[in-house]
């Protein structure tokens, strides 16, 4: 084996030995590197519980760079928001009797009632569905959240 092959093999082994980062619920007010081509995996094992009710939507949660991502429209509509998508601006707007929210595709900031809030992961589109960090859903529903890694359960309460 020549020096180049040996070096490439060593680099490959070293890189492949890194562990996958832990899953987070994506807290607000953290900076994030923007990506235009997100990488994600669908998490069919994750259970989402809101106020002691198991939520099971057609669009399953996803994991993006270690952060739990949830399908925005399904969650917000279930809690009384009217949700619209503007294809031209790549923005999702949600409104209920008291709150107005705006998310922009590939951005980690959201607008809550005119105030900018920054999350740890950008809004993304997966299979024509808009996903946002779990912390966005928690904030929009005025609830706290906790992730139980051992059981793979996200509890929003």
Automatic annotation (TrEMBL):
Domain called Copper amine oxidase-like N-terminal: residue spans: 50-154
SUPFAM superfamilies xref list: Copper amine oxidase, domain N
UniProt cross-references to InterPro entries, sorted A to Z: Cu_amine_oxidase-like_N (IPR012854), Mao_N_sf (IPR036582)
One Pfam family here: Cu_amine_oxidN1
Keyword Signal: yes
Keyword set, alphabetical order: Signal
Signal peptide: 1-25
Protein name, per record: Copper amine oxidase N-terminal domain-containing protein
Organism: Aneurinibacillus migulanus (Bacillus migulanus)
